[in-house]
Amino acid sequence: MNKPLLAALATLVITGAGMAPAAAATPTSGAASAPAKGTADASPALAAVDFAGTVALSNCSGSVVRLPGSADGDPALVLSNGHCLETGFPSPGQVIVGQTSSRTFGLLNSAGTQVATLRANKVVYSTMTDTDVTIYQLTSTYAQIKSSYGINALPLSDTHPVAGTAIKVVSGYWKRIYSCNIDGFVYRLKEGNWTWKDSVRYTSACDTIGGTSGSPVIDTATDKVVAVNNTGNESGGRCTVNNPCEVDASGTITVRQGINYAEQTYQIPACFGAGNKLDLTRSGCTLPKP
Questions:
Q1: Which of 17, 55, 205, 287 is the most exposed place for a label (fewest CB within 10 A)?
Q2: Is residue 255 classed exposed, middle or buried when 0-12, 13-18 and 19+ CB atoms within 10 A define those classes?
Q3: What is the mean pLDDT, run by run of 10 residues, along the chain of 290 residues?
Q4: In 3-state terms, the chain is what percent helix, strand and coil (to 5)?
């Protein structure tokens, strides 16, 4: 996993880096600061993606996200990884719903400057089974965040992304943006005791590190979140923690050292009703249930 930062530093194993924080913060070939509005990036289509709406957690990254059916007055949601949950990694098969939380998040503007501290009142949903996601409910509404700080939530796509799509992985923790493409999709991605389905595999330019866990993966053509960054094969190990392996439908295992991955998020909107209320019984909801 792109491990939560404190755990990563404790073991001196940071996915894709294996270095101290100061060194890890130095941009690599796949990372860049957000382009200033009106300046050139690698491609004109990428210029709209910046840090606005992303958040920094104590040990991970995340983003304020808005579902297709969300209203301005709904309590805002923050998306991060299941393995970033403050109470520890959910066990295989475990699904956490409605857990009390007072976690705080540093809200960033387009330049990557923290402009506010947002607070959760509960963990709406968290799991590391089939996917690797935590969704927090905030004490603020979308309208309140927009009115107070001029920042919109990132829209969450409800459609499956496609291979070849240009993406950016935006880390609120490191204030770094990685640019690459979706290389393909993995039938099963296995890491230690956890297995994830239909994972996104990046091209090599997105060489994400510890602390980037939970970063939104944004389709640069639509500015919508299509996945959440979560792991990479750090040292070439086979299906071990920090060294996930790909398993195809026939059971063949492939190891890709140095390649990083994300979990798709298009399934999430179908599991929410009016008022951003989680309802795992809704038609079309395929997220794992408790």
A1: 205
A2: middle
A3: 57 29 31 37 56 98 98 98 98 98 98 98 98 98 98 98 98 98 98 98 98 98 98 98 98 98 98 98 98
A4: 10, 40, 50
Same domain? 109 vs 198: no
* Contact of 97 with 83, CB cutoff 8 Å: no
pTM of the entire predicted model? 0.88
Backbone angles phi, psi at 81, to 5 degrees: -90, 155
86 and 119: one domain? yes
Look at strands 253-254 and 245-247 and give their pairing: antiparallel
Q: Could you give the number of structural domains in the chain?
A: 2
Structure token digits, residue 105: 């998040």
Asked if 260 contacts 202 with a C-beta cutoff of 8 angstroms, the reply is: yes
For residue 130, give the CATH number of its domain. Answer: 2.40.10
Structure tokens at 22: 């100061």
Residue with tokens 């200033």: 36
**Residue 270 host element (H or E):** none
**Are 179 and 224 in the same domain?**
yes
Q: Which residue from 94, 248, 225, 92 is spatially nearest to 157, judged by alpha carbons?
A: 225
Residue 120 lies in a domain: yes
